Amino acid sequence: MTVKIGFIGVGGIAQLHIDSLLRINDVKIVSVFDVNGENAAAVAAKTGAEVVATADQVLDPSRIDAVFICTPQFAREDLEEVAAGRGIHLFVEKPLGLDVDVVRKKEQTIREAGVIQSVGYCLRYLDTVQKAKAYLAGRSVHLIQAFRFGGAHPARWWNRLETSGGHLVDAVTHQIDMIRYISGEFSEVEAKFGRVSFEKLNPDVTIYDAGAITFTMESGAVGNITESCLSPHYSASDIKVFGPDFFLHLSNNGHTLTIIDSTQNITETTKVEAYFEQSKAFIEAVISGSQAPILSSYAEGLQTLAVTLAANKSFEARATISV
């Protein structure tokens, strides 16, 4: 079986998916749409796909088996529901939206349609993250510390809180998702955000330049995340997990794992490519008709989104928010 793929949105993240798909047998990218015609034309030249005039034209079940929806979170409209209603399998980039109630309704529609669905939390597919999850299974965690520092996205939509949700919702979502994946569900969050630098440098930017989020887990563990998208001279992302008899550290965006306990002190670097493993799993799922290879379903993406949006709500309300 050759899996025929359509793309809606072919910006930077989509390019990573396309490069991965081109390395997989039995895959053909047949149609693409992007509001930027030059981007769409470049992908068509690279893949042999046809450029179509609208997103709806991509969602033609007579032409494609699956679609990659890589539009920004503010520009999804009802693409997922339309695709699912037409029996088209879904890969959707994170984050899934900016309104948890809207995304929850979409999740129900997708689930009831019975299509294969995957959300772009690619770091779950790293062998280091898998080993961390396996190690923590059954172990008692009491403290989690995480951070993500780096630069801002150049696009205007990314720098507007109302269209991106901010750095936490759009990027630090990967760290939130990894914490959920290896340690369990969040219970409550309380967030503080700041704009002290953006107010001086560029008041037209409405996202926060820094954030500090404290949280509790359903297990009883506590933790915090600090983040900034205005850190041009230092970029890093880590998760540290503390137990009474161990220390676990996922650094370099999950690509390096350290485990220290009474029997070992090891540090390992991933041997796989997250985007390729993610794409491969999605194609395997479509061919087999089974959701099993997928590590992040639409429902999982919804849960991670709920945590980040709860943090935004916490800051607005100046209150602790239950997830």
TrEMBL record:
Residues 3-121 form the Gfo/Idh/MocA-like oxidoreductase N-terminal domain. Residues 144-243 form the GFO/IDH/MocA-like oxidoreductase domain. InterPro entries: Gfo/Idh/MocA-like_OxRdtase_N (IPR000683), Gfo/Idh/MocA_Oxidoreductase (IPR052515), GFO_IDH_MocA-like_dom (IPR055170), NAD(P)-bd_dom_sf (IPR036291). SUPFAM superfamilies: Glyceraldehyde-3-phosphate dehydrogenase-like, C-terminal domain, NAD(P)-binding Rossmann-fold domains. It comes from the Bacteria. This is Dehydrogenase.
